[in-house]
Design goal:
single chain, about 500 residues, alpha/beta, Nucleotidyltransferase, domain 5, 2 domains, eight-stranded mixed beta sheet, six-stranded mixed beta sheet, 23 strands
C-alpha cells in the first residue's frame, strides 16, 4: 500500500526534515500541523533499522490534555490516514492503542489523555521510541519533560536501539508567558517566574521551533488600524481548504480570537465577558511611554501570595500613563517588598521615596492568625510608605477604571498603557473577565470577575485609580464633596429621658 503525502508548505516540510530531539511547529487552524505529525510518526517508524528478524519495531505515544479532545480530534485525524481495516486493529478502551503491522513495520501507538494523575503515571512507566504532543499549548511543561525522559527506550540496545528518537509537537498560538514562546525566544521571561523555574525555560541546543505563516493578511488604513482581512497566498495547506474557509471562520469572531487562530499571534483567549468592554487598541502605546521627572510616581498594590503592582503617572489635565507592572507568584510580603524596592530603584531612579505615592488593598492591614504583622507593616518596615486604598468595593473599583477608559482628554484617550505591561494588557483584552455560568438558556455570567492570574494585577490597578481620586469622582459624579458637621458638640450620654419628641439637631454644610 502506498501513502501519498506531500507537506503543505515550506515550514512544515522543514519541520519534517529536521532531526532535532525536540521539534515544535506553531500555526493557525487548518495549516496541516496535525496531519503532518501523524505522517511523521509513521515515516520515522518506516526509517527504523530492522531487527535481527527483519522487522522494524517502534513505539509511540500521542499526548492530549483531555480525553474528549483525544477521541474527537486527535484519534479521528489519525484514523483518517491509518484506518483499522488497512493498518490493524484499534483498541477503544483506555489506554487507546493502535497496533500497526504493515509490510516490515510494527508500530504501536498509545494515545494518552493526561487529565488524571493515573494517566501521568502511565506515561512515566512507558518505554517509547518517540512521542507526539498534540496542541502543546494546553500541556504543561512538566509533562513535556516527562515525555523527553521516556523516548529512546525502545527498541532496547540489545536489539539495536532506535534509529531516531525524540519528541514532536504542534500547537495553535499560546499566551506570551507560556513555555513555548519563552523557550523559542518569541517572548521574554516574565519577572514573576522564580529563578529555579527560569532554568527550565532555557532552550536546549537540541530543541527547534518552527512557525507557519498566518492564514490571512490584515488590511490597514492610513493610521495603521485594521479595517479587514484578505487571504494570504503564502499560508500553508491553503490548497487543501475551500477558498472561503478563513473568511467564513472569522465571521462574528473577536479580534483576539482571529489573532490567535488565524493570524498565528501569541495571545489570550478566555470564555467570558470582559470586565472592560470599552478597552481597545487606542489605549495601547505603540512605543514605550516616557516618565515625567516633574510628576509623582503613583503605585497600586495587591497583596497575597500572588502580589502585583502597577506604576503610573497622572498628567495635569487628568490623563493617565500606565508605565509598568510587577507581577509575582508564590511570594510573601517580605520578598515582594524587596522586589518592589528594586523595581522602583531601577525603573524610576529620578524619583525619591517622598515623590512616590502608594496605595494597597485595604484588607492588607488585617493580621493573620499565624503572623501578627500585616503586609502594610512589612512594607513600611522596608521603607515603603503604602497606605490603604479608600475603598474595597469591587463595583466602585471597576467603575473608577472604566470611566477613565471611556473618557477623552484633549482629543486623546485618558488612559495610555506602555506595551511592556503584558499581563495587564492581556487582562484588559480578555483575561480579566466575568466567568460564564453553566446554566441553560441565555448566556449568564458571574457578578464578580473571575479570580485568575490576571485579576491580581487588575486589583492593583483599581487600588491605584481609587487611591488617586477616581473613586471619589465615581461616588460624587465629579462634584466636590462637602462634609456635613453638627452645629455644636452633642454628648449622647448627657441626654435626659423625656416623653417629649426629641429636638432635631441643626446641621450646616
Amino acid at each position: 500500500m502506498e501513502i501519498k503525502y506531500k507537506p503543505s508548505g515550506k515550514v512544515l516540510r522543514d519541520f519534517m526534515r529536521d532531526d532535532s530531539f525536540f521539534r515544535g511547529v506553531r500555526g493557525p487552524v487548518g495549516s496541516g500541523k496535525s496531519v503532518g505529525c501523524c505522517i511523521e510518526l509513521f515515516r520515522r517508524a518506516s526509517q527504523q533499522a530492522p531487527g535481527a528478524d527483519g522487522i522494524r519495531r517502534s513505539r509511540a505515544a500521542v499526548i492530549r490534555n483531555t480525553n474528549p479532545q483525544l477521541r474527537t480530534t486527535t484519534i479521528k485525524t489519525w484514523l483518517d490516514w491509518f484506518p483499522e481495516d488497512k493498518f490493524g486493529k484499534f483498541t477503544w478502551s483506555p489506554p487507546y492503542t493502535h497496533h500497526i503491522k504493515h509490510a516490515d513495520i510494527e508500530l504501536e501507538v498509545i494515545f494518552l489523555a493526561l487529565d488524571k494523575p493515573d494517566d501521568v503515571k502511565k506515561l512515566l512507566s512507558l518505554e517509547l521510541t518517540f512521542c507526539w504532543i498534540n496542541e502543546a499549548r494546553e500541556v504543561p511543561k512538566p509533562i513535556v519533560d516527562a515525555c523527553t525522559m521516556r523516548v529512546g527506550r525502545y527498541p532496547s540496545m540489545r536489539e539495536g536501539g532506535p534509529t531516531w528518537f525524540g519528541v514532536i509537537a504542534d500547537t495553535n498560538s499560546p499566551e506570551e508567558d507560556h513555555w513555548w514562546p519563552i523557550m523559542s525566544g518569541e517572548a521574554p521571561l516574565p519577572d514573576y517566574i522564580p529563578p529555579d523555574q527560569a532554568m527550565m525555560l532555557v532552550k536546549p541546543e537540541s530543541w527547534t521551533f518552527f512557525t507557519q505563516p498566518a492564514g490571512m493578511l490584515e488590511e490597514k488604513d492610513d493610521q495603521g488600524n485594521t479595517t479587514g482581512y484578505i487571504p494570504n497566498k503564502k499560508a500553508e495547506n491553503y490548497k487543501n481548504l475551500p477558498d472561503s474557509y478563513y473568511p467564513r471562520i472569522i465571521e462574528g469572531k473577536t479580534r483576539s480570537w482571529i489573532d490567535v487562530y488565524v493570524m498565528n499571534r501569541l495571545g489570550v483567549l478566555h470564555e467570558g465577558k470582559p470586565v472592560y468592554p470599552s478597552f481597545s487598541s487606542v489605549h495601547l502605546g505603540k512605543e514605550p511611554l516616557p516618565t515625567n521627572r516633574d510628576l509623582d510616581i503613583l503605585v497600586g498594590i495587591d497583596f497575597g501570595l500572588t502580589p502585583a503592582a502597577v506604576f503610573a503617572q497622572r498628567m495635569p489635565r487628568g490623563r493617565w500613563l500606565i508605565l509598568d507592572e510587577l507581577v509575582c507568584t508564590d511570594m510573601g510580603a517580605s520578598r515582594f517588598a524587596e522586589a518592589l524596592n528594586y523595581k522602583l530603584a531601577t525603573e524610576f531612579p529620578d524619583h525619591s521615596l517622598e515623590r512616590i505615592k502608594l496605595w494597597g488593598d485595604p484588607s492588607g492591614d488585617f493580621r493573620a492568625q499565624t503572623d501578627e504583622r500585616t503586609p502594610f507593616m512589612i512594607m513600611r518596615a522596608a521603607g515603603i510608605n503604602v497606605v490603604p486604598a479608600p475603598t474595597n468595593d469591587p463595583v466602585v473599583r471597576i467603575e473608577a477604571v472604566a470611566t477613565c477608559l471611556e473618557r477623552m482628554t484633549d482629543g486623546y484617550p485618558s488612559v495610555m498603557i506602555d506595551p511592556k505591561c503584558r499581563v495587564l494588557i492581556a487582562g484588559f483584552e480578555t483575561g480579566y473577565h466575568y466567568k460564564r455560568l453553566n446554566v441553560p438558556g441565555a448566556d449568564r455570567y458571574d457578578d464578580r470577575p473571575d479570580k485568575n492570574r490576571f485579576s491580581h494585577v487588575h486589583d492593583a490597578c483599581q487600588y491605584l485609580f481609587c487611591g488617586a481620586g477616581e473613586a471619589k469622582k465615581v461616588l460624587t459624579g465629579g462634584r466636590e464633596m462637602h462634609v456635613i458637621r453638627p452645629a455644636r458638640e452633642w454628648d449622647v450620654f448627657k441626654r435626659q429621658k423625656t416623653r417629649r419628641e426629641p429636638r432635631l439637631t441643626r446641621f450646616q454644610v
